[in-house]
Amino acid sequence: MDMRPIGVFDSGLGGLTAVRSLRQILPEENLIYFGDTARVPYGGRSRDTILKYARQDVRFLRSFDLKAIVIACGTISTTSLDALQAENDLPIIGVVEPTCRRAVLVTKAKKVGIIATLASIRSGAYEAAIRRLDPEVEVTGRPCPLFVPLVENGRIQRGDVVIETVAREYLEPLKATGIDTLILGCTHYPLLTEIIADIMGPEVTLVSAGEESAFELKRMLKTRDLRADESRQGTAEFYVSERTEDFERIASVFLQEDLHHAARRIDIDQYGI
Ligand code: DGL
Fold it and tell me: Among residues 177, 197, 199, which one has the least CA distance to residue 109?
């Protein structure tokens, strides 16, 4: 048994969708979440900048005595996972591999679509993982750069003409390729599930990045004998790098539950390398 907390981080608040899955799948674990709200979004930046930010984020999280880290961000997972794993002596899980494994299991037509940030699509990491798992699967990737800012601004409701127009422009060409499975390769996107499902139709299965990594973490903790006492209720602490006002309200939307935790603000520049 290991009662140390698990660090979870994202460029902003999108990673809270992964926290939601982690709390459902591993309710006994203590979580420490960091959202780099001062510098979100990462998705349009270069790999070098994303890696630099990710190293700082990990450095902050490692000021706690953690047993594992979950990168609850497609953009950081696709660009920086290997480097972060090589530099750190604790298990680090990203979203790419677990999500692709699920997509390959789900697709019957062997046609999978991926929507993610520009940096994630540019990295080719999702495509490469699918090809490794099943070379016969045809993959079509599409960056959706306006989704993250719209989600961070709360434009997630059905009937919101801005998000629906943007979503149709991104998704209709993907639908036309005949995919039967769509990877939501960015942890902000599960908040758009209804809007995306309306456009893609019932014949397309949506696979969310955050949820699959929670199952992967559970397996890993079990194999390494790192699980917390299963009879207890885990705690969660939240840290951000920008103003904390409105955190509870916005985080409640991402977590889809009433959150009564205030976030603490930290100065991420202090963790510069
Ligand atoms: N949640 C992040 C991801 O999964 C958002 C990316 C961004 O900051 O642009 O990719």
Answer: 177
